[in-house]
Amino acid sequence: MLARRRLLTALGAAGLLPAAAWPQEQWPDRAIQMVVAFPPGGQADVAARPVAAALERVLGHAMPVVNRPGAGGILGSASVARAAPDGYTALMALSSLGVLPESERIMGRTPAYTVDQLVPVARVTADPTVLVVPASAPWRSLQDFLAAAKRAPGTISYGSAGNYSTLHVAMAMLTGSANIDLLHVPFQGGGPALTALLSGTVNALASGPGPALPHVREGRLRALGCWGRQRIPGFEDVPTFIEQGHPEVEFYIWSGVFLPAATPAAVQERWRQALRQICAEDEPLRRALEAAGSPVAYQDGEEFREFFRDDTARLTRAVQRIGRVE
Known about the structure:
By secondary structure, the protein is of the alpha/beta class. 41% of the residues lie in helices and 19% in strands. It holds the Pfam family TctC.
């Protein structure tokens, strides 16, 4: 066995051994990069940091989280799509990953990446979005908010992580169902959008529950409704939009790990094994995600691939309904 390993090492150094032929046990042998395509503080960042810390404990190598924001998530996602397919660069993505290429086409641009350049490895979380407003706002309920929007169309503003981002699409579902006109203010990620809400720059936000929960608990934000079929843990007093008369308004913001599509199958499987292990067994990870209001909702393999296909198709239809955004 030792002789075989030495031979494989020599062949690899000489460039004579394809990457896919390397024994799975040789991966990883150095630090691994986890890319987040948004600034710190958003839903992808909230998931990526405890996941990376847990993977370091299992894989035995550093896993720095690198924030590469820009264009609503396009720049960071494209950087991973173009990265070397060796398993050392991964993306912690949100549901917007699948619809951003379609948004680029709608805007008349060539997409910076396509979905088939990335392979889904595992879903980590899947949370309904929650509508939050400043606690100082006059709206005590969703009914108050919608009535105010109808009285003064286009004057109530809401932030998002960028045009066609998950937070934009979620709000578009609500405005369409309620027949209201809100002012959309895009930012370079969920973190900056949440900061803008807290500072009073915008009036409302469709947020992942994790980033919003601490501010709701501290009394700085008020939640008016959620996009789930059931109420969200930590937001038990907040009714769903379905409960409040909007049966078609259902949306989930999920986080999942993706690799460049040409990554060897053995390395993809090692990623899945490690992610499955930490999501099932790593208590610090589970506690961190639960404390953030975003508990583990693990999927991998064909189950996650099917989920990603169906979710991307549904959200692509929503983006097409939004149309061109100037």
